[in-house]
Design brief:
It is built from six helices and twelve strands. With about 210 residues, the chain is of the alpha/beta class.
Length: about 210
């Protein structure tokens, strides 16, 4: 490798560094930080059509709570959806298809939504009506870390990158890809992989930034 390339290469921090910090937060601290982040949603609202369709996720691994996102969409008359993994079953090798589809949320509280635990560990709700990612106006993406250019480090499964790759490569404006996380999850720079799909915007307790 050329010395300049060696020098410019970024070593991404380990995921456990951020997941450990998330787990150390109390429930009340999480709720307070999520409430602070929700104050910046009015800036996102300016880019959305009436009756926008918003993809959310369950915050089951210490993430910044997503209930305030659900409260926000109810106040504005938006529609919200949750991701479903493996709706296409498995391939010939037994691998779960990584394309996410989305089910509508009819409850006002995430805690009241009937779920089951997927084999990969995340909560899921099942419904006959499933939407493609391209049918949503916004997808709020879970993340472990994100840099100041919008490069996102996920949990490593590749579900969101696989789901969003076609619309990103085609240069489509929707769905908007928005990160939602604590400020300590924002780092100066990450080394992206060729298949990574960057975010369009990021909301943290300290503000909203566009990339």
């Amino acid at each position: 490798m050329h010395p300049e390339s060696e020098k410019s290469k970024v070593n991404n921090p380990p995921r456990r560094l951020f997941t450990r910090q998330r787990r150390q937060l109390s429930d009340s601290a999480r709720r307070n930080l999520a409430q602070a982040a929700s104050l910046h949603l009015t800036k996102l609202q300016q880019r959305l059509p009436p009756h926008a369709k918003i993809g959310l996720y369950y915050d089951g691994f210490g993430e910044l709570p997503t209930q305030p996102l659900l409260d926000w969409r109810q106040h504005l008359g938006y529609f919200s959806y949750l991701p479903v993994v493996g709706s296409f079953g498995r391939d010939s090798k037994g691998n779960v298809d990584k394309h996410l589809r989305f089910v509508p949320i009819y409850q006002s509280k995430l805690l009241n939504i009937p779920t089951r635990i997927h084999s990969l560990g995340m909560k899921q709700n099942h419904h006959r009506r499933l939407l493609w990612a391209r049918e949503l106006d916004v997808i709020v993406c879970p993340l472990v870390a994100v840099d100041k250019s919008g490069n996102r480090m996920g949990m490593g499964g590749g579900f969101y990158d696989t789901t969003l790759s076609k619309s990103y490569q085609a240069g489509l404006k929707k769905p908007l890809k928005i990160g939602w996380c604590y400020d300590f999850q924002v780092v100066e720079q990450l080394e992206p992989q060729p298949w990574d799909v960057p975010l369009d915007g990021l909301i943290t307790p300290s503000g909203l930034r566009w990339f």
